[in-house]
């Protein structure tokens, strides 16, 4: 019996995808071997890669003048790749909104290669809100503007897309494919796979073609977007199994109705949990209401001494991976695309019962 998995990443995968992969594990497409055992340059695997790219293009309506790259190193690798690839055209200034832990990591890495300007910071309220544009302090000549639309750890989500004059870079690791996106507003979108795309081990970067010529001259080959684009993301041996599984997830998403259907599902799931928390005096959510994430919902108990009991009993009830991040504590439920409504209903029922017994 599968349990309900609220892990923030690596996260739940669609059961239908796992079952198909299980069926094909030893005999993929009648070839008598696994997809992990064929050359990445074979016609069979190239077809997998090409379909995965096209399905992702269809899901996000990605224009033809954007390259879709399947890369290694996760989103953390892109913290280095972004400045390496975008700081070679003159200005070394980088505008970044400091919205939480993942913005902090991007700031630290970008600062190794350029001059970081904090456009705004939510640190004054413990990263419990997304700073609005009225608080910005932008550079006049930034090479690019970086932000994190959804902060996984703090459960903060931007309810707007920044309008800037330089290329806009978005780390969409925990929100990609959960709603429609106007890709043309962005210069670069990147995401680690292990939340809404597929298993860990692969990352996606969507890069506007004109930005491929801005790399620093001494950029490491493995981080160079243009080399990856020219090689079809196969300059070196890619993580083929993760790429294959990501492709199956894209197919599953299209079968569910695409990102429009996922947006409605995300709204329903998050509203169900937020509504329960807001009606309770036993639980609370620390995030400003207009900045609440649909993907990651942190919550705390009125009596923190009950945290360990809550986590122990919830796991026994089949509700997995609810501890908050080690840096903030409390609880966190991640409601990515593969988490069904039934999982959230089961969580709310458990929370109500726990409150009745301990409130």
Automatic annotation (TrEMBL):
Protein name as annotated: Phosphoserine aminotransferase
Q: Reaction catalysed?
A: O-phospho-L-serine + 2-oxoglutarate = 3-phosphooxypyruvate + L-glutamate; 4-(phosphooxy)-L-threonine + 2-oxoglutarate = (R)-3-hydroxy-2-oxo-4-phosphooxybutanoate + L-glutamate
Supply the SUPFAM superfamilies for this chain. Answer: PLP-dependent transferases
What this protein is reported to do is described as:
Catalyzes the reversible conversion of 3-phosphohydroxypyruvate to phosphoserine and of 3-hydroxy-2-oxo-4-phosphonooxybutanoate to phosphohydroxythreonine.
What is the organism lineage in this UniProt record?
Bacteria, Pseudomonadati, Pseudomonadota, Gammaproteobacteria, Cellvibrionales
The family note in this entry says: Belongs to the class-V pyridoxal-phosphate-dependent aminotransferase family. SerC subfamily.
- Where the record annotates domain Aminotransferase class V, the positions are 4-347
Tell me which cofactor or cofactors this protein depends on.
pyridoxal 5'-phosphate
Question: EC number(s) in its UniProt entry?
Answer: 2.6.1.52
Where found, per UniProt?
Cytoplasm
InterPro entries in the cross-refs: Aminotrans_V_dom, Aminotrans_V_PyrdxlP_BS, Pser_aminoTfrase, PyrdxlP-dep_Trfase, PyrdxlP-dep_Trfase_major, PyrdxlP-dep_Trfase_small
Record key words, sorted: Amino-acid biosynthesis, Aminotransferase, Cytoplasm, Pyridoxal phosphate, Pyridoxine biosynthesis, Serine biosynthesis, Transferase
Root EC class:
transferase
Xref: NCBIfam families: PRK05355.1, serC_1
Q: How does it assemble?
A: Homodimer.
List the CDD domains hit by this protein, alphabetically: PSAT_like
Give the co-factor note.
Binds 1 pyridoxal phosphate per subunit.
Q: Which domain of life is it from?
A: Bacteria
A molecular-function term among this protein's GO annotations: O-phospho-L-serine:2-oxoglutarate aminotransferase activity
Q: Which organism is it from?
A: Microbulbifer halophilus
What gene is behind this protein?
serC
Keyword Cytoplasm belongs to the record: yes
Binding residues for L-glutamate, per the UniProt record?
A: 8, 41
Q: What is its main location?
A: cytoplasm
**A Pfam short name:** Aminotran_5
């Amino acid at each position: 019996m599968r349990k309900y998995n609220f892990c923030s990443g690596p996260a739940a995968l669609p059961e239908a995808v796992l079952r198909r992969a299980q069926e094909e594990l030893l005999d993929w497409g009648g070839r008598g071997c696994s997809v992990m055992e064929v050359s990445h340059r074979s016609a069979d695997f190239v077809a997998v890669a090409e379909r995965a790219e096209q399905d992702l293009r269809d899901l996000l309506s990605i224009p033809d003048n954007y390259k879709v790259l399947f890369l290694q190193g996760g989103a953390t690798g892109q913290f280095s790749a972004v400045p390496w690839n975008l700081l070679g055209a003159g200005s070394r200034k980088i505008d970044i909104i400091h919205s939480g832990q993942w913005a902090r990591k991007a700031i630290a890495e970008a600062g190794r290669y350029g001059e970081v300007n904090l456009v705004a910071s939510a640190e004054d309220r413990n990263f419990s809100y997304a700073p609005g544009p009225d608080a910005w302090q932008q550079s006049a000549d930034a090479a690019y503007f970086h932000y994190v639309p959804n902060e996984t750890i703090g459960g903060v989500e931007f309810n707007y897309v920044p309008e800037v004059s330089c290329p806009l870079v978005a780390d969409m690791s925990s929100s990609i494919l959960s709603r429609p996106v106007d890709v043309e507003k962005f210069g670069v979108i990147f995401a680690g796979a292990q939340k809404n795309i597929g298993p860990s081990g692969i990352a996606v970067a969507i890069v506007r073609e004109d930005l491929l010529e801005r790399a620093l001259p001494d950029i490491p080959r493995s981080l160079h977007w243009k080399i990856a684009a020219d090689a079809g993301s196969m300059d070196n041996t890619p993580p083929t199994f993760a790429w294959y599984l990501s492709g199956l997830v894209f197919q599953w998403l299209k079968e569910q109705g695409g990102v429009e259907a996922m947006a409605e599902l995300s709204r329903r799931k998050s509203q169900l949990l937020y509504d329960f928390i807001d009606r309770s005096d036993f639980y609370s959510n620390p995030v400003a209401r207009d900045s609440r994430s649909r993907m990651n919902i942190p919550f705390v108990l009125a009596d923190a001494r009950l945290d360990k009991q809550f986590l122990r009993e919830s796991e026994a009830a089949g509700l997995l991976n609810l501890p908050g991040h080690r840096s903030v504590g409390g609880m966190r439920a991640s409601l990515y695309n593969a988490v069904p409504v039934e999982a959230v209903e089961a969580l709310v029922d458990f929370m109500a019962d726990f409150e009745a017994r301990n409130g």
